[in-house]
Amino acid sequence: MAAAPSVLYLLILFTIISAPLSSSSTPPTTCIIGSGMAGASVAHFLRKYSHTGPIHIFERNDVVGGRMATVTIGGNTFEAGASILHPKNYHAVNFSKMLNLKVKSDDPDESVSLGIWNGSEFVFKTIEYDSRFSWIRSILGFVNSVRMLVRYGVSLFKMSRFVEVTVDSFLKYYQTLESRPVFGTVEEMLKWVGLYNLTTRTLNEELIDAGLSSILIKELATVITRINYGQSVSISGLAGAVSLAGSGGGLWAIEGGNWQMAAGLINHSDVALHMSEEIKSISYVGGAYELNSRKGNSYKCDVTVVATPLDELHISFNPKISIPDRKLQHTHATFIRGLWNPAYFGFNHVSDIPELVGTIESSDLPFTCISILKKHSEKDMTYKMFSRQAMTDVLLDQIFSVRNKTIRIDWGAYPLYHSPEQFAPFILDGIHLYYVNAFENAASTMETSAVAAENIARLIISRSSIEPPSISSNYATSASIRSDLHSDL
Ligand SMILES: Cc1cc2nc3c(=O)[nH]c(=O)nc-3n(C[C@H](O)[C@H](O)[C@H](O)COP(=O)(O)OP(=O)(O)OC[C@H]3O[C@@H](n4cnc5c(N)ncnc54)[C@H](O)[C@@H]3O)c2cc1C
Ligand SMILES: *[C@@H]1O[C@H](CO)[C@@H](O)[C@H](O)[C@H]1NC(C)=O
Ligand SMILES: *[C@@H]1O[C@H](CO)[C@@H](O)[C@H](O)[C@H]1NC(C)=O
Ligand SMILES: *[C@@H]1O[C@H](CO)[C@@H](O)[C@H](O)[C@H]1NC(C)=O
Ligand SMILES: *[C@@H]1O[C@H](CO)[C@@H](O)[C@H](O)[C@H]1NC(C)=O
Ligand SMILES: *[C@@H]1O[C@H](CO)[C@@H](O)[C@H](O)[C@H]1NC(C)=O
Q1: For residue 328, is pLDDT > 70?
Q2: DSSP structure string for 358-389
Q3: Which of 267, 268, 271 to mutate to test the pocket of ligand 5 (most atoms within 8 A of CB)?
């Protein structure tokens, strides 16, 4: 009962503020920079939460999807960037249902072998590996393998437990709108689910505290963080836990390419999509943002959302914005059709080489991992390789005896993770300039982009209706969100 007067006050206040606004002005125009998972999801959630104004999306490339992209080599198409989803990536699950996208999941009948290469020999080799994603996060699916148990013992279960606890905390972001606040900062958002502390320490520290053996940390955990984030176990505990989160199987992807999630969301959100149009400047003038593109066009926007990492971009902001310095880890993805050379790995036969070669941290190692994407025949395969530096032809000629086709992609892939992690603000200028990718310092995945985007959409709607001065005088109100935000009524 004590809350009643203030609630009443809020209600009256809202009625006073919103009524004249919605009747006297046109709905706001929202401009989103970037058509990846983040930008597409902001558009989707703005529409879902009944935002009526025009939405523009600007994409500098001639395709949508950003770091969700495919590569075609020798007539076959593969994921070149973000490749796998976790079964508890619930936004992605819902998007794929809503968009009628075909899903391919883990096939337990197909198994692949894993080896951990230290530059001169395999320190560990499994025989079986239950996943057709001969790639990455499903490595924890090995927990049941006898060889793994022999080498790593109970530490395997401690690692699984550490991951499970983190995933369970993350699930709070799927709670109903009534029970979940709108977050103004990344710190607040992480604290609310109890994950903030994991960003203040390294994965190595967290795993030691969780009682894992040093051999597991040095080998298995390192192999996984190198594959997923191109970095060592000195990344933050949270990014580390996310990269380890492949246990229990059930990994999946969108048949034909994960980029179709972004394409579908954009298609269903009544968006004006501006392809091959790079935004070069954002200026706040006279109560709105003016966006200028390299094509020479100018757009007026009431709300502007940056849905791409700003770290390597040359967008000029006026007035200037200030965000913590952040470097991106570059991951060089190299696709090869041909055949690898067993002698490089000290073997006589191609069939002796594990189908997924992971690596430990060592300055001598020129690559992070190599996996077989497809076996066309015993002498003709397609491989995917990650490395921190570009692979030279000289190096590739040592690792591969036949190389009929090579495709190289240099990704500004994800942040270089530290501890303690520093976060850019979600609201860059205190007005209506938003930054979804501030959340990437927590972890970078398709799903975390969607989760951050959902919060940004709510933040936009809640702030545009509550703030009366200058710029928000343009805002239509959103009754559904408003009542959600004040469910304690
Ligand atoms: C090699 C690799 C493997 C990965 N593996 C996985 C995985 O298995 N699972 C997973 O969940 N995640 C994975 N990720 C991470 C995942 O790809 C990203 O976290 C996610 O896709 C980021 O989406 P985003 O929309 O935030 O950014 P992006 O996808 O980068 O989208 C930003 C978009 O903005 C555009 N843009 C930039 N500047 C401008 C401008 N000035 N004007 C107009 N447009 C602009 C860009 O062209 C781009 O299309 C991987 C990433 C890489 C690189
Ligand atoms: C996914 O869709 C189901 C069914 O519509 C819904 O109950 C659930 O809340 C949705 N999950 C998320 C994360 O939006
Ligand atoms: C690789 O492992 C072998 C055997 O454990 C060891 O002798 C060798 O020094 C290791 N090499 C590197 C680069 O760590
Ligand atoms: C995070 O760390 C602080 C300071 O050490 C501590 O007080 C708090 O209880 C921790 N929170 C969680 C959720 O572990
Ligand atoms: C967009 O959606 C419509 C139906 O809503 C569909 O017919 C069309 O194929 C979609 N286009 C793309 C590019 O997804
Ligand atoms: C590579 O190309 C050569 C010549 O076109 C062909 O004979 C050979 O079968 C190809 N090998 C592989 C592994 O694709």
Answers
A1: yes
A2: EE-S-TT-S-SEEEEEEEEETTEEEEEEEESS
A3: 267
